């Protein structure tokens, strides 16, 4: 393992911002820590970088305990949330900073700066002032600056947080390609699930300083560990249910679940695609409370008579109007029992 | 951190302790009753009363006259605004002695008003009050105007849209936002006028005397050091109270205000009323700030052109042991040494104060650093006089004594200039440098230093101007054969005869020009957000 955290704990006063976190990152792996703001994910990066001392636990990099190793000697890169480019230096001055700190000769620095600016898609920008850069360009310079000293671990704090949506979606693809090509080991944190799923080999969901779930994007998406993770991923249809024989009893009535589901009181998730609309006289009777256009489909919010709301994903043409009465049936392929 | 603390312990705390001991200790026993005895003297009570009421009246007058100026500089955009801003600031860094002589030339015996209409104000309190307004105009304009310029005008527009008249909008939105700044400025002016020394010493004659002047008289004329010490302690307590109040208002100042870039809030004046306001402010500045200085310069040339200036270069054997012009050289040398000291001590203190792990103790030091500013130069000078002239620390014969005292007065300016800039440096920039492999010292050099270089220059300029004009402390400790410019001016004024008077004007003019040049260099360097002065 390139990086491992063992019981890493950071307290601000009484509150544990990192609460006995265990995490491992293998070489060439891209791990994305996902969580709402205040879940401790930035503190995690700062602790690994050496900017935030641990109250207990250890951080091991390349087999060496990092306790007492100051930030500037850890050899990790960190791209800050709002970039933190040095305002009084030009683009080249920023990118070359880490190389200068390592005492690289001038010729080598110039060469490497050009190479990196080429890599991040800003060839010829070396002489520009950082204040004159757009948000996307600043982001690229910050990335080039973090990559320049070839850190053994690159950490990204909300790497695309401040950019507009279309730029973000393009950059996420570029980053993934770039890290694959360079073989960089990456630990990123974000609150945006789309970003995390697009970027990461493995996603780690954090809540209140603890790790709630860890797995590949597909695993996390298909089987969120608990109601918190499910809701954080944007799923609304989460209820307590009593699981019996391939069927779960819920406030929405009986919902089919996969055969091998253990019995007992469990948390049940029905993905919106698994809520099928049928004529009002069949299935669970609901009123359409709201509908939102989502581009590829329409999200329809349904209000059953005596149960929590349901969200259904409908094809554009088939979507009912607000106020319509519909019936609901559930698709076993889109239900999951959590935990 | 250790260096500034040691500096203040030896050169501030120790002299203050010496003052207390001198005042209350007699033959090894403490006599707290001395305070009551001194306070019971009717002339002391008179001094206290005068000190307080003249400070109050000066403060109210300054606010009344300077607030329109603050408004004009904050809200209006007009040709020559930069010039007006610079002119308004000049008096603040002018030495009190220059201000004193300038008003002497305007309203004193044989002054301009005397010649024109036979009006003399130098025997009345008005000369002192006017000089105080002159001196503190900049304090109000800078403190209140600086905030005013950053208040979002759209707040007032929002009130207008909700049905408030122009005046009602100002009264209900802008005024409450400004109130803490006005209070802070008023307290600052009160503090400066309460501890006024040079101005009162020159314009007060035998009639008017503030605490500061009385301390000086008790020391240098009556040689009653223990009474002087008790008076110093009274002053100390008063100043401490004012400073505490000031710190409290400043803390409340920036709560929940929407601040915007000052460059976008100014508009060209519209309508007769606004042009009249602008005209009134320009006229006030011309009459109150420029006229006295112009008269000073004019008087200095009264005797056959350069006569007074030529006289400065002659050894007269009476007032000085050396030609008065040598005071220029002395002043510059002292100022360079004092500036170096103040920048090093103040710089180290500022860096220590901005460290994120700075504890409560260190932050308390912040307030302590401000003390010499308010505790007044006379206290510093008097303390040096009685504390550092005998073992264990005998510096009486050393030239360093004067720069040390001046540096002590200059350090608060350095700290006030450096702190906001250092605090504005984002810690994460330092962290970014650390992650890229810069050691803490290297990160400071690569990240902080380029950003504070300008502030450092400005701080040095302030310290330089302050020590050039420093009078209250220097007058106690400057040696007769090595006077500084302000001390020489005061001594010349203290002697009868037109030649001495004219020489004082000439020397004052030289001092004014040196200070003004220093200030104009500063104005070029400074940005609006640099420093609190």
TrEMBL record, chain A:
EC primary class: translocase
Gene3D superfamilies named in the record? P-loop containing nucleotide triphosphate hydrolases
Give this protein's Gene Ontology molecular function annotations.
Answer: ABC-type quaternary ammonium compound transporting activity; ATP binding; ATP hydrolysis activity
Domain ABC transporter, which positions? 3-233
A single GO cellular-component term on record: ATP-binding cassette (ABC) transporter complex
Return the Pfam families for the record: ABC_tran (PF00005), TOBE_2 (PF08402)
Classify the source by domain of life.
Bacteria
InterPro entries in the record: AAA+_ATPase, ABC_SmlMolc_Importer, ABC_transporter-like_ATP-bd, ABC_transporter-like_CS, Mo/tungstate-bd_C_term_dom, P-loop_NTPase, Transp-assoc_OB_typ2
In short, the EC number is 7.6.2.9
* Keywords, comma-separated and alphabetical: ATP-binding, Nucleotide-binding, Transport
Q: What is this protein called?
A: ABC-type quaternary amine transporter
From TrEMBL, chain B:
* Localization terms from the record: Cell inner membrane; Cell membrane
User: Which organism does this sequence originate in?
Assistant: Streptomyces griseomycini
Q: Which lineage do the record's taxonomy fields give for this organism?
A: Bacteria, Bacillati, Actinomycetota, Actinomycetes, Kitasatosporales
What's the family? Belongs to the binding-protein-dependent transport system permease family.
GO biological process annotations for this chain's record?
A: transmembrane transport
Membrane-related topology note: Multi-pass membrane protein
Q: What is this protein called?
A: Thiamine transport system permease protein
Q: Which PANTHER family match?
A: INNER MEMBRANE ABC TRANSPORTER PERMEASE PROTEIN YDCV
Q: Which residues cross the membrane?
A: 53-74, 86-106, 126-151, 172-205, 225-248, 275-297, 332-353, 365-388, 400-419, 455-478, 501-522
State the Pfam families in the record.
Answer: BPD_transp_1
Residue limits of the ABC transmembrane type-1 domain?
Answer: 48-244, 328-522
Record InterPro entries = MetI-like, MetI-like_sf
